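Researcher: Next sequence.
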Amino acid sequence: MNIAARTILADIDAELSNVIPIKPGHRPDADKLADLHRKEAHNCQQRIAATKRGLKADLATFATSRKAEKARHDAAMLALGEDEAWARQRAAEAIAEDERLAKYNRAAIEALAE
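Model: Next structure:
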């Protein structure tokens, strides 16, 4: 080992010699601390349950909204389909009328040419 590493190890050993080890055993506050931890764990579990209930309610709301939006979309698409069919029918009728008038005018031109 180099000199710097030995110096660091010596410093660490000196610092650790000043540490007072805690003796394991029953501490008078241990029961109070355990109760506090139990209560906090219980509070966390309650918050978890409340969050899950909230999520379930939110998901149900989203599903209802999604169904309503799909119904509106389907109704709008049906209305567009009906409008398209009506436009096609109106155009077909106009074309048929113009073809009839064109045929009539051609017949009139032939009659005048004779």
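Model: The radius of gyration is 45 Å. The chain has two helices and no strands.
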